[in-house]
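Supplementary Note 3. Input sequence used for the single-chain structure prediction.
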Amino acid sequence: TVYSGSSDGTIRAWSGEDGHLRRTLAGRTGCVVSLAIGADSTLYSGSVDNTMRVWCGGSGAARHILSVHSIVWALAVCPNGKLYT
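The predicted structure, written as discrete structure tokens, is reproduced below.
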């Protein structure tokens, strides 16, 4: 699966095999400017709405919403599972 963030606040999940849209994750109020995928297929997204969201990669359900003090421009997941912003 390939993910893309959008200025309309959505995240789109695309098939890496045929390029077709698999699902759209909605619920954000600002542009999605950063994405990271954990080893367990957990998806992390950062936005200009000063939040970071944690999504279930398999179902696309939002697990957590974390409010921060600024735009989340970058995210990284280390092999040990730690998340850095």
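The chain has a mean pLDDT of 89. Strands lie at 2-5, 11-14, 21-25, 32-37, 43-47, 51-55, 62-67, 76-77, 83-84.
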